[in-house]
Amino acid sequence: MREVIPQYEDENPQSPRGALLDNAKHLITGDRNNTYGPPTADFQRAAGILNAMGYRALGGRELLPHDIAILVMGVKLSRLTWKYDHQDSWTDTAGYAACGWECALEEQAAEEPLIGLFETPHAANAVCTIRNCMCGESDD
Q1: Is residue 50 situated within a structural domain?
Q2: Residue range of the domain that includes 69
Q3: Given pLDDT bands bounded at 50, 70 and 90, which one contains residue 40?
C-alpha cells in the first residue's frame, strides 16, 4: 500500500517549508541582524577582507557582497550533502539566499555591475582564456 504524503496549502503556517522560512526570516531580520548588523554591510566587510587577501570572483573581478552570500550558501550546501536532515543548515541556506538578494538589489541600485556566470568582463577579448567559460569566445 502506498504511503499518503500530506499536502500543504501555501497559506498553511504549519507546513514544514513555511515554518523553516518563518524561522529564517526571524533570524535574518532579528537576532542575526542585531548581532552582526545589516547583511549588506556585513557581507561588504567580508568581501573587502577577502579582496585584500587576493580572492576574486569569476572573471577576475573583486568580490561583491552578493558573492559572499553565494559562498556561505556553498558551505551550507556542503554540510547538507554530509547531513541532509540538519534543519539549521536548511534554515541558514534560505536566510543567506534572502540576504544575498538584498545585497544584489543594493548593488544594482548603486549601479555597480552585476556580472553573473554568463556575463563575463573578458568577452571583448578575441579569445577567452578562462577554461569552461560560457562567453562563447573560448578556443576550447
Answers
A1: yes
A2: 16-109
A3: very high
Q: Cα 75 to chain center, whole Å?
A: 10
Average of pLDDT values for 87-106?
96
- Amino acid 14: pLDDT: 76
Instruction: Tell if the pTM clears 0.85, that is, is over it.
Output: no
pLDDT of residue 32: 76
Look at residue 123 and tell me if it is in a domain. no
Domain count, the chain: 1
Cα 7 → chain centroid: 29
Residues 6+ apart with CB under 8 A from 109: none
- Quote the CA–CA distance of 39 and 103 in Å, as a whole number: 7
Q: Which of 76, 94, 73 is nearest to 23 (CA)?
A: 94
